[in-house]
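U., I forgot to send this yesterday:
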Amino acid sequence: MIPTKEIVLEAGKRVAPYVHRTPVLTSRLLDDISGARLYFKCENLQKMGAFKMRGAINAIMQLTEEERKVGVVTHSSGNFGQALALAANNLGVTAHIVMPSSAPAVKIEAVKAYGGKVVISEPTLKAREREANKIVKEMGAVFLHPSNDVNVIVGQGTAALELLEDYPNLDCIMTPVGGGGLIAGTALAAHYFGIECKVIGGEPFAVDDAYRSLKSGKIVDNTTTHTIADGLRTHLGDINFPIIQSLVSEIIRVDEEEIIEAMRLIWERMKIIIEPSSAVPFAAVLREKEQFKNKHIGIILSGGNVDLLKLSFFKR
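Result:
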């Protein structure tokens, strides 16, 4: 079932007191380079540094008082774990975050700093799911999926809702595609509040499961995870995929060098920090310039949580 217009609108009102209304930045130079008019929605400046704060807040606020008392649990190696920890802390709810042993120490410490109770698991999805299920069974905590949960999806869409309130005449909104929550939520917002506004995803060739899923009509997995865009190594879910099938126009794939160049341009020309995943939709615009020529394009900069020492263009 596709959430209604009223559900999307209510989510916007619900999360507003708990998130930043992030700015929309423009760059004449990047417009000239791309041949389009670009509007960057800066979720890299969101609380905890990513759009996922929106979905976490919306999902927790939809729980009953009894559910809040027993707490929430998720498994995440990065941004959603931090988002859920911070959102839960703000609302007085206990959050258990299952993180793989391979997660960067800086991310584990960030979750703890936001008040999350970290449980370390083996670095496999099955192990993470097993630990999360154990917490659900033993403590009664409510499991919240990072991207395949209706309330999370609708919450993520509030970034695009704000963007369209500021710029209602966009021809298209671009997002990166990982687990599918952001692009599905964005597609809902564009469908209900845009004016013939398309939604297009950007995805690395190395992890192009969403592109292949749309082509085949069924969810397929990735066989590799070798991309600099580490936030996009996850796969679609059975709740967000039908929304994507129905409302997303296409997904454009980009290679690793294109991601790096797009990221470098945004850092250098816009003077803001974004993570590699955020650069993917801009890289897609640069790859398909003719398609976007003279169009008004919104781009969701999904996050800004980076390990500076691992940046591809960082030289010590």
